[in-house]
Amino acid sequence: MTNIKSNRAGSEAEYDPRTVGEILHEFLKKSDAPFAVASREHMAGFYPNTELAIDLKLLTRKPGRMRVGTNLEGVITHDGPDHYKFVETQPTTDGRRNPHVFVGRYITVTRRDDGTLRINLRQIRVHADNIDSYALGVCDELREALRGLVGEDIE
Fold this sequence. Notes:
The structure is a single chain. This protein is α+β, with helices and mostly antiparallel strands. It has helices at residues 20-30, 34-43, 131-150; strands at residues 55-59, 74-80, 83-88, 100-103, 107-111, 117-121. The strands form two sheets. Strands 1-3-2 form a three-stranded mixed sheet, with no helix packed on it. The chain has a three-stranded antiparallel sheet with strand order 4-5-6, covered by helices on one side.
């Protein structure tokens, strides 16, 4: 019976037991396999960060705890020292980008993929005799939209 170890080239450390995570990390980092290449391209521009000992509040569309393996789309906010809040966003099942989150007579508000809000003025005829009512209507709708989306009174 031959000793397999004696036929190996390279250092002993190369053949020491490793975790699956280490093997997968090395594969994704160094391999030319299509999956590894696609993974590197997809993750370009992301920086891993681990926050220790934090409070995280989840505001989700369904009651109860998240099941293991569940993914949610939403926005996370660092709203205090060692405190974060995650708000699940409306799922975009129709495939539209930047869905409307408020539609009024004067304005619409859309949410971008990164969670930021964009305010758009709707097309409307403005005459010299209704400039003030138009401006007040825009102001009122803007306050109403932000009050509902931000969740706090704006004074």
